[in-house]
Design a protein that fits this description.
Helices cover about 30% and strands about 15% of the residues. It is an alpha/beta fold and about 290 residues long. It has two domains: about 100 residues, Rossmann fold (3-Layer(aba) Sandwich), CATH 3.40.50; about 170 residues, 3-Layer(aba) Sandwich (Rossmann fold), CATH 3.40.50. The protein has a six-stranded parallel β-sheet with strand order 7-6-8-9-10-11. A five-stranded parallel β-sheet has the order 2-1-3-4-5, with helices on one face. Helix 6 links the parallel strand 8 and strand 9. The mean pLDDT is about 95.
């Protein structure tokens, strides 16, 4: 029997089609639903009836959901970790190239002022948080002939563990922050880490703004102690008008995963996870509330 699945807060057509293609049956109400595909915010989702056993979320970051997930131990939650990896990695690469090749600075010029820019080729790039996005970025960096230092929580495979992270800040040329936002990663990059970076180092953040201390970053940029920063996420977010980082950094307004592609990529994840749910298989990206992602 096909599982009854509710898609909300609206019955977005790509998600409805994904559920049906994977063998699920769409129901209009939460009542009686066995699973929920939720493409809205936490405060839009009402209390879950006892019939719900699984909730698929639309985002990779699940900070707003943590308390609810911890308070609902009988419901499995899955995030969209990895679903948007290609789009976000592409944006990270664009920001890194815009920084290292001087494009960010030239875009603000009003006169012909060529400089001797550095190139990405031959440099060492640290990927801090080599999960789905980080792995995709590593693939995209292959043609650029760079050395990669990849850092993961556990140090799996050829990666360094988070315990080895202190050795990375002084050894890489550039840094891309892809780690999840947890209590352990808040201000992962602060004054001490920035102090170890090289004068030409660029730091790119496409994860969450809380991973970088904004005051310490502004100080480092103002003093010219690092090459620059390119941020798709900020702390606070949205970044207020007049904030020093508008002038000091290259800012994009959290658009690494554009809405036009988000629903398409989410539908792919929904179809795969509904198929797995129907088959009784392990779901992709289960949320661990203790780890915070």
């Amino acid at each position: 029997m096909a599982p009854a699945i509710h898609v909300g807060p609206e019955p977005f057509e790509p998600l409805v089609k994904a559920v049906e293609a994977a063998g699920g049956e769409i129901v209009e109400s939460l009542e009686g639903a066995e699973a929920v595909v939720w493409a809205g915010t936490e405060d839009q989702l009402g209390a879950l009836p006892a019939s719900v056993k699984w909730v698929q979320l639309q985002s990779a970051g699940i900070e707003p959901w943590i308390e609810r997930i911890r308070n609902t131990p009988d419901v499995r939650f899955t995030s969209a970790v990895g679903a948007y990896a290609s789009q976000v990695a592409e944006h990270a690469l664009a920001l890194l190239l815009a920084g290292t090749r001087g494009i960010a600075r030239y875009a603000r010029e009003h006169s012909w002022n060529p400089q001797d820019e550095i190139v990405l080729e031959g440099s060492t790039v640290a990927i801090v948080g080599a999960g789905g996005i980080g792995r995709e970025l590593i693939r995209m960096l292959e043609p650029h002939d760079v050395e990669i230092i990849a850092v993961t929580r556990s140090g799996r495979g050829d990666t360094l563990s988070v315990e080895q992270l202190p050795t990375v800040w002084g050894n890489a040329d550039h840094f891309v922050i892809c780690a999840p936002a947890t209590t352990d990663t808040e201000h992962l990059v602060g004054a001490a880490e920035l102090e170890q970076m090289k004068p030409h180092s660029w730091i790119v953040n496409i994860a969450r703004g809380s991973l970088i201390d904004p005051d310490a970053l502004a100080d480092a940029l103002r003093d010219g102690r690092i090459g620059g920063a390119a941020l798709d996420v900020t702390d606070p977010e949205p970044l207020p008008d007049g904030h020093p980082l508008w002038e000091l950094a290259l800012i994009t307004p959290h658009v690494a995963n554009p809405p036009s592609s988000m629903l398409r990529d989410l539908a792919k994840r929904v179809q795969e996870n509904v198929r797995r749910y129907v088959d009784g298989a392990e779901l992709l990206a289960p949320v661990d509330p203790e780890q915070g992602y």
